[in-house]
Amino acid sequence: MDNLNEKGDLLPSATGITSAPKRSLLWQYAKLAAVCFTVGYILCGYLYPATRPLSIPTFGCTKSAVSVCAQSGALKPSNEALLNALYEQFADPVFVNKSAELLGASVRIPTEMYDGLGEVGEDDRWEKFGAFHAWLEGAFPNVHATFKKETVNTWGLVYTWKGSDGSLKPLMLTGHQDVVPVEPQTYDQWTHPPFSGYFDGEWIWGRGSCDDKGGLMAIMIAMETLLKKGFVPKRTVLLAFGFDEEVSGMRGAASIGNFLLETYGENSMAMLIDEGAGYSEIMGAMYAAPGVGEKGAIDARLAVKTKGGHSSTPPKHTGIGILSSLVTSVEANPIPPRLTRSNPFYSTLQCIAEYSPELPKKARHLIRASQKSDNALEKLGEWAMHELPAGVAVLPIGPSLMSTTQAVDLIHGGVKSNALPEQAYAVINHRVSVSDSLAVVQDHLVELLGPQAAQWNLSMEGFGAVVSADSDDAPKAGSLVLSDTFGTALEPAPVSPVEGAVWNVLGGTIKTVYAHNDGLPASIRRAKLESGEQISTEINMAPGIMSGNTDTRHYWGLTPHIFRYAHNRPEGIGNGFHTVNEAMGIENFMAAIEFFTTLAMNVDEANL
Ligand SMILES: *[C@@H]1O[C@H](CO)[C@@H](O)[C@H](O)[C@H]1NC(C)=O
Ligand SMILES: *[C@@H]1O[C@H](CO)[C@@H](O)[C@H](O)[C@H]1NC(C)=O
Ligand SMILES: [Zn+2]
After folding, report:
1. Which of 97, 200, 204 to mutate to test the pocket of ligand 1 (most atoms within 8 A of CB)?
2. Residue 42's pLDDT is what?
3. DSSP assignment, residue 473?
4. Where along this sequence does the record place binding of Zn(2+) 1 (predicted)?
């Protein structure tokens, strides 16, 4: 393994001594110590080979807290006969068409979600979920006969398939019933109407076919089929479907999260799978990259108040002018991106270095060297910022994952063209890197804008704390108030463990499913085979990270083992999410059904 070469980085003192002019006794000792250290280090390498997590320092083997992309093997349930029977069923063309028909029918019930809805029970636009619930009952009779169905905040759905052993923590599978709206003026750009759910033999068309009715239907079909084939779980399976994920899940998943916390308590689930990243090729190797973290978010508001008055005798700068200069300053001084070893994106890079043949040599060297060298880590950050290709929607890699981003998305001020504005504000949407925190963003803004507020003779309040007060002795010309605009600031999600039994069951399941059905659309497979391209049956696990948020933000208390993973590959999700011509490839969909089926069986008997 060539990363042994890079151990030199660890021996700076020995290198320093080499250049010492006098080879004293001390030098002899130092040399001996260096040799011992090196031997010890290599031994550590043997004791802690790459396939084991390297985070625990033992015998003085203080390797950096980095797991070099540990992989576990494919995992099949002990009842392989049942698994094979299920797989056979999923390959049956009649069953395939039935599955496509179910997904299409779910798309035909529009469940578009908009900003600014009133409370459930008051605003009747929530009622559309009634039709969806009723349809589910008819479409999945076995699930509805066997599972306990509960509704939370009227439209949230929780299904419980009670296991025979109540001492085992449940498996929790989640998704959302709502979809993003279709812009009416784009209707005519759709190959098949957005709520047609039309199946043309290859694709199921329509809004939600991928996000997230595809996920929800794959879970339901997997459960229905497991039931029909006589599977009896030891471990309880919980299904939880929110209804306003596309507007932050404050009424749906938030209520479900509270309900489950009250019912089961903290840390009560073995594993939670929600929508999220998928699997894809990166630089010559296949990866499944469950999102093990999520960026945080804050909408920071900069509000400037100044004296009003008639604009015939104006000051040199009005409140709008002052606000503009503050906004300019924020844009000119973003929080510097930084790659840290605890960022799951860093782990993704380690995996790419381990398995991707097409990664440039220089990058591979940097990625490996960065395990121990901070200098290499910094250079790697630069490389990832500027040279790494951006990845694909289901498997994002690249700059945004190591940056706290900012976008000035709202500005408001003034009421009349001949009156000085008394109030002006701007809202900056920040997506907070897992290496940063809300406090980092808030401190950054306060430190950046504090001196400027003083220059403008403004009192200042920063996120609830007085930075500089107005007083009778030193009156101010106005005020600057920084705040969390909607009170919805969200810390980056806790990073889920990427070693141990839970991660291995997930990885082992994905490997089994991928080897059996890689989800590639038939037309693309034909083209690949004709051009002589090899189609691999191997897939690696890589910890991924989400740059957006899912409903899982409301489930943090239920388990540390949260994975945002939809078993989708880019070739199988047509044009992507939230777009015109959203469409789900049938092979991709069937692979997702296999994934949930295999996962349920594997998790049932795993020691978690
Ligand atoms: C499945 O559906 C497609 C598209 O409607 C159709 O062409 C095909 O004949 C169907 N196959 C079966 C087995 O029903
Ligand atoms: C700040 O503004 C107040 C009110 O206009 C004024 O009285 C005061 O002198 C100003 N202070 C400075 C340092 O400009
Ligand atoms: Zn979604």
Report:
1. 97
2. 41
3. S
4. 211, 246, 578
212, 224, 245, 594: which one is catalytic?
245
pLDDT tens track for 386-419: 888 777 777 777 888 999 999 999 999 999 999 9
Q: Where are the beta strands (DSSP E) in 107-186?
A: 148-152, 156-161, 171-176
- pLDDT tens per residue across span 470-479: 988 888 999 9
What is the reported pLDDT for 40? 41
Residue 34 has pLDDT above 60, yes or no: no
pLDDT score of 2 more than 60: no
- What kind and span of H or E run contains 231? none
Query: What's the mean per-residue pLDDT of the chain?
Result: 89
Rounded to the nearest 10°, the torsion over CA 310, 312, 314, 318 is: 60
Helices (H) and strands (E) in the chain, counts: 16, 21
Q: Is 198 in the pocket of ligand 1 (CB under 6 A)?
A: no
Atom of ligand 1 nearest to the CA of 94: 13
| Interval 481-524: pLDDT, tens | 999 999 999 999 999 999 999 999 999 999 999 999 999 999 99
Strand-pair category, 171-176 with 237-242 = parallel
Q: Which of 178, 275, 582, 594 is catalytic?
A: 178
* 178 catalytic residue (yes or no): yes
Q: How many CB atoms lie within 10 A of CB 367?
A: 24
Mark the residues whose beta carbon lies below 5 A from ion ligand 3. Answer: 211-212, 275
Query: Ligand 1 center to residue 585 CA distance, Å?
Result: 14
Residue among 275, 406, 286 nearest 337 (CA): 406
Residue 54: pLDDT band with limits 50, 70, 90: very low
Confidence of residue 577 (pLDDT cuts 50, 70, 90): confident
Ligand whose nearest atom lies closest to the CA of 456? 2
Residue with tokens 């929530």: 126
Edge-first strand order for the sheet with 458-462 is 405-413, 423-432, 296-306, 478-484, 458-462, 465-468
Catalytic annotation present for 245: yes
Q: Whose CA is nearest to atom 14 of ligand 1?
A: 94
Q: Annotated binding site: which residue ranges?
A: 176, 211, 246, 274, 578
Complete domains list, the chain, with CATH: 80-279+549-605 (3.40.630.10), 294-484 (3.30.70.360)
- Using the mean position of ligand 3's atoms as its centre, give its distance from the Cα of residue 219 in Å: 14
What is the Å distance from ligand 3's center to 182 Cα? Answer: 14
* Dist CA 581 CA 194 (whole Å): 7
pLDDT at 67: 53
Residue 151's closest CA among 242, 33, 89?
Answer: 242
Side-chain half-sphere of 100: how many Cα atoms within 13 Å? Answer: 22
